Known about the structure:
Order of helices and strands: EHEHEHEEEHEEHEHEHEHE
Shape: elongated
Helix content: 25-40%
Radius of gyration: 20 Å
Mean pLDDT: 81
Strand order of the largest sheet: 3-2-1-4-7-12-11-8-9-10
Amino acid sequence: xxxxxxxxxxxxxEGRSAARWAAREAVLRNVPLRLIHVEDWPISPPPPRLHAxxxxxxxxxxxxxxxxxxxxxxxxxxxxTRCLSGRPSTAxxxxxxxxxxxxxxxxxxxxxxxxxxxxxxxxxxSATETPVVLVRETDEAEDGSPTxxxxxxxxxxxxxxxxKVLAFAFEEASRRDCTLRAVHGWKLPPVFGHAQLLDPxxxxxxxxxxxxxxxxxxxxxxNKFPEVRxxxxxxxxxxxxxxxxxxxxxxxxxxxRRIRHSALGAHLGPVAHAVLHHTAAPVxxxxxx
Length: 289
């Protein structure tokens, strides 16, 4: 299988930002980039009275313009384009099967920092086990200057195996030569009652135990990636809220989601849901058992 990064584009500012982010990622990985457009219009409504021929022409222009923009920034990058028909979530999930990574644009909530998870993004996330990165619209320099990468934040659940999440986070930090901050939020068991009544010494002792568990989980990855500058942090409180607060200024946020085989119910956990709706950085979602 040929390694490559796939990005869905739709002519929107978010799609353009997603394509630029995906191109930088493809360069980091030294793999080709595939630009995909799916003709169905659920992401961006078509102009009024747009007939089939015009729609196809418009789609081809979107792909051509996006490819031109990316090539101007990365002349040596191998880029291919494909225009598909069908339900976007189904087509994108099918394309993701052979990809190392799927990148999608995601709209912000107006002046509120966060993602608006539309039906296409949510359904695509649920339909694929390939890592998916959601990217918001960003203002970028037009001079194509080298990218300076900031830190990566990864949410770690010490109570379940999350090897795929940690492998992705460490590999990304290694590629970018940047700091990786591993964050775990925890709550006091209900038996302790109101947190404010708890002896501070007892809370500190519990936090030390949680920190040791986090350190033990990260030890094999620290040994495998000795070049990665790793920071570890535990918080008392909601895992989702604390992780969102920890992402301020991050270049990338990495979280996991449990694989659900039932057609009913949400396919995103509360932590992934909180991060997707309340952080401005690109968010990588890793499906794991």
